[in-house]
Specification:
Among the domains are: 167 residues, no CATH class; 98 residues, no CATH class. 40% of the residues lie in helices and 17% in strands. The protein has 14 helices and nine strands. Strand 6 and strand 7 form a beta hairpin.
């Protein structure tokens, strides 16, 4: 079959393969099995993400049906057992490293001061069942994992991720996250830890979170609440001097409590260590936290992090890393193609036209595009 310029090929062209091969060599991930290389594994996992395939059998069958077009891309259909073995045994650091390389490429042209950087922190739970999921036992008959993410709302991209069993507390995972000095961190009640807050404060970070309802504030100053806004009160004070079990609170600096009424009528107590910014700015920062919730919704609705091709700890780590890689590739494709439709629509169009000979900027058109359109997109990708 003659070589065709498919949507899947355009997506694979965005992968920095040279850097990926360096990771493969560094971690020796092809040492035990060269017949099914790490590159072929990544290609198959990306195909599963973009096509929506939800099982090893489905991946094998669908890729076999497109064998002629996949072969020039190094994407020969894998045997189920070989694919499962690779997901269970290969080093996930190869795929995590590729995610970090892609992330740096995405943010290369985005210039700003670190003091303007906003980092949203949250986690999402993933239900597991079946053979291999014992590592993530939550109770006697329930298994699950958690993906912990640091999200940049300005880039609309995750900048860090980690995978744990579902019974690991959010703040426990957060303590291992890298801290970017001077950045603003926004998070919810799952990260209520005075010691971790003190670490952020010592790094010059601004933190925005919520007070628990029973946490008192030793008030020292009341600020004027802005007129005509949803801000009900603005106070500066100190957290309790002691934590549970009479431990000394390491966060001894003054904090600020801003009470705000949200659209549902609920009243929130927002905590920050920024004593100078306008109260509306702090409230707006906390409101931005919902962008990471929307990101998780998009990931679960459009990419495969709810149904796994393998349930061992190693397989789950690899598949989550590849799902995030797929997300970055789709975002890059959306930017390059300057699509007039939204991101979710682009994802649906990619899935419907994955192995069609089409220009990604014209996937809505029913007839296949000509060579001129394909060549033009190749020039756009090279320029990017």
């Amino acid at each position: 079959m003659p070589f065709t310029h498919t949507v899947f090929r355009d997506l694979l062209k965005l992968v920095p393969w040279t850097a990926f091969e360096r990771l493969v060599d560094a971690y020796q991930s092809d040492a035990l099995s060269r017949s099914f290389s790490t590159r072929r594994q990544l290609t198959a996992l990306l195909f599963a993400q973009f096509s929506g395939a939800s099982s090893l059998r489905e991946v094998e069958a669908v890729m076999e049906s497109h064998q002629g077009r996949l072969y020039p891309l190094g994407g020969a259909a894998p045997k189920r057992s070989t694919f499962a073995d690779a997901n269970r045994t290969r080093d996930p650091r190869v795929f995590c490293g590729l995610f970090e390389i892609l992330l740096r490429a995405c943010s290369r042209g985005f210039r700003r001061k670190m003091g303007d950087a906003v980092r949203l922190i949250d986690s999402t739970s993933l239900r597991l069942a079946g053979a291999g999921s014992q590592w993530a036992r939550f109770s006697s008959d329930v298994f699950g994992a958690k993906t912990h993410v640091v999200y940049d709302p300005d880039l609309a991209r995750p900048v860090y991720h980690a995978v744990t069993a579902a019974n690991v507390n959010d703040v426990t995972a957060a303590k291992t996250m890298p801290i970017e000095e001077g950045a603003t961190y926004v998070f919810d009640l799952g990260y209520y830890d005075y010691g971790w807050w003190a670490r952020l404060d010592a790094a010059g970070c601004r933190l925005v979170t919520r007070f628990k309802s029973h946490t008192p504030l030793r008030e020292i100053e009341t600020l004027a609440a802005p007129d005509g806004s949803d801000i009900l009160s603005d106070r500066i004070g100190f957290l309790p001097a002691r934590q549970a079990q009479n431990r000394k609170n390491p966060f001894a600096d003054a904090v600020r409590e801003i009470t705000v009424r949200i659209e549902t009528g609920k009243i929130l107590r927002i905590l920050t260590n920024d004593l100078d910014a306008p109260a509306e700015e702090i409230a707006d920062l906390y409101k931005r936290r919902w962008q990471i919730e929307l990101f998780f919704r998009v990931m679960k609705q459009t990419l495969k992090i709810a149904n796994f091709l393998g349930r061992s700890e190693n397989a789950v780590r690899i598949q989550i890393a590849v799902a995030l890689i797929a997300y970055l590739l789709l975002r890059a494709l959306h930017d390059i193609a300057k699509a007039r439709h939204g991101f979710l629509e682009l994802v649906r169009l990619v899935r419907a036209n994955l192995m069609h000979e089409k220009d990604v900027s014209r996937m809505r058109q029913s007839p296949p595009c000509g060579a001129r359109d394909s060549n033009q997109l190749e020039l756009n990708l090279a320029a990017a």
